[in-house]
Amino acid sequence: MTESAPGIVIMGAAGRMGRMLVQAVAESERAKLVGAVVRPGHDWVGEDLGHAMGGPAMGVTVSDDPLEAMARAQAVIDFTSPETTLEVAHLAAQARAVHVIGTTGFDDGQIERLVPASRHSVQVRAGNMSLGVNLLTGLTKMVAAALEDGWDIEVVEAHHNRKADAPSGTALMLGEAAAEGRGVTLAEVADRGRDGLTGPREAGHIGFSAIRGGDIVGEHDVIFAGQGERIVLRHVASDRVIFARGALRAALWGQGRSPGAYDMIDVLGLDR
């Protein structure tokens, strides 16, 4: 590891994704772990992070104070909750630290509240940090733009039984890409729930279906259904480590960038 390696703080370090992020940063030769934050009152507070995770000492004391943890950081990776992320965005802006946001479940008002912080720090927000999903997003936009009227678009996603939000952030990201390809706004055409006697499918709508069960990491299908044929674009995640690697890549990419709101398409240098 070089002396210039950026220091990174992990929010929600005790969670399933938080542990993956800790492992990814700890194993990296290009970054150093300088802080780990958990919710107030958590059993890990004050413990060495390595010991708390059941391994050897890591030299990082777990904290419940993000401000204190970020005092030594150049980046913070955040897969928590919308309200926590809004608080962290404010602190990242003060510290001029890169804020990588993998949190999902934002409403439109909360997304607007992230904007002021992005004027003072690099903010990378994506519903999914994996390379494959972001390639799928680009393909979805391209196919939606190429098809003529008469093709129905459905986004089907599956996740583990502990996921709290639906549709997933990735599903919404794919829906946005499809809407952009069609030259419409997703909010105007999204159909996010069907139950009972719904009548015929609304022409031009983009439908969403959510499956929850077991330990499914993440599966996303974008279905383009026409008369006599279908196109199905699919991504299957079998290991959460892909999200951790993508988030770390975003944190490193953001070093030295101008403040602003970015996403993984920017990080990966993919054409829009």
From TrEMBL:
Residues reported to bind (S)-2,3,4,5-tetrahydrodipicolinate: H160, G169, T170
Pathway(s): Amino-acid biosynthesis; L-lysine biosynthesis via DAP pathway; (S)-tetrahydrodipicolinate from L-aspartate: step 4/4
KW Transcription regulation (keyword) present: no
GO CC annotations on file: cytosol
GO molecular function per UniProt: 4-hydroxy-tetrahydrodipicolinate reductase; NAD binding; NADP binding; oxidoreductase activity, acting on CH or CH2 groups, NAD or NADP as acceptor
Residues bound to NADP(+): R39
Residues reported to bind NAD(+): G12, A13, A14, G15, R16, M17, G102, T103, T104, A126, G127, N128, M129
Primary localisation category: cytoplasm
EC number: 1.17.1.8
Recorded family membership: Belongs to the DapB family.
Subunit structure: Homotetramer.
Name of this protein: 4-hydroxy-tetrahydrodipicolinate reductase
Source species of the chain: Limimaricola pyoseonensis
Lineage of the species this protein comes from: Bacteria, Pseudomonadati, Pseudomonadota, Alphaproteobacteria, Rhodobacterales
